[in-house]
Amino acid sequence: MTEAVFAETIAKDQRVEPRDWMPDGYRKTMIRQIAQHAHSEIIGMQPEGEWITRAPSLRRKAILLAKVQDEAGHGLYLYSAAETLGADRGDLTRRLIEGRQKYSSIFNYPTLSFADVGVIGWLVDGAAICNQVPLCRSSFGPYARAMIRICKEESFHQRQGYELLMTMMGGTQAQRDMVQDAVNRWWWPSLMMFGPPDDQSPNSAQSMAWKIKRHTNDELRQRYVDMSVPQAEALGVTLPDPDLSWNDERGHWDFGAIDWSELQRVISGDGPCNALRIENRRRADSDGAWVREAAAAHAARHQEVAAP
Ligand code: ACO
């Protein structure tokens, strides 16, 4: 496959597969985005994982456990997709724990009450779905296909979060206050998940041209706001933005200014929980070293025995 065939594949909306010729920049961009996405899933297990032992009922514990396991699964599919491009999983993990590769800003905020579990499901997984459904049509085959299954599971995650919040909103005043407090803390960071504004997004133009991204950061953020406002109304919570108002002319909700300096701070490692998240990951990596070594020794032994 040559450059012309690659260009034709993109123009015809077909998929680029791992063995096809692709520009170095395309390969690098795909590895960057897929690795960041995989790291987000793996680090994303922590904020909610902290609540597994403290879930208020067996039912909530079982749901949360399943959800956190799903996140691990998403990370694994995504690392596998990155491997089809020649990336090495061990190397990607090292880049994460040495702070050389990013993961989503959203997972650097603390989960202060059980309502946060519901709000993460509703708002954070809702934002993830909004961002990831178009990625099912992303031009790189293994990534697009992984995204189909991931989005199905994310939809379940979002439903469980919304259902949890509905239950809490039907409870005591103290429970309703917990939900509102969690919404107040997570709303703005959720909007930041979509990335910097389009005029400050260095990768968007090229990723759109290669059809890796199908919509810009701002387009998806607007779609998310439009989707969330009626859901907040149905739930009976207030989104913490006094500038939120329906704009008849645009046919969209207007919203207030986002504090982009906060996103920059969190991305550059100075969010409320960055150090903790990375420290936990580093410890998991070193604690698990003996398992990887044993598995490798077992595989080598198996090969020796199997060899004629
Ligand atoms: N958190 C951390 N880093 C971010 C964020 C964020 N919310 N938004 C943007 N960035 C990073 C980008 O990765 C990029 O970093 P790099 O160039 O140094 O590698 C830089 O900021 C500039 O941003 P953009 O030019 O807009 O980058 P890009 O075109 O890659 O768009 C986006 C960012 C929208 C996150 C895109 O990579 C994407 O859609 N990724 C797949 C989805 C994903 O990773 N989701 C993870 C969270 S959802 C979940 O796990 C439940």
UniProtKB/TrEMBL annotation:
Biological processes annotated in GO: phenylacetate catabolic process
Organism: Actinoplanes digitatis
Keywords: Oxidoreductase
Entries under PANTHER family matching the protein: 1,2-PHENYLACETYL-COA EPOXIDASE, SUBUNIT A (PTHR30458:SF2), PHENYLACETIC ACID DEGRADATION PROTEIN PAA (PTHR30458)
Pfam families in UniProt: PaaA_PaaC
InterPro entries on file: Aromatic_CoA_ox/epox, Ferritin-like, Ferritin-like_SF, PaaA, PaaA_PaaC
Protein name: Ring-1,2-phenylacetyl-CoA epoxidase subunit PaaA
Gene Ontology molecular function terms on file: phenylacetyl-CoA 1,2-epoxidase activity
Keyword Repressor among UniProt keywords: no
Class in the EC hierarchy, top level: oxidoreductase
Keyword Thylakoid among record annotations: no
Highest taxon above the source species: Bacteria
Any GO CC annotation of this UniProt entry: cytosol
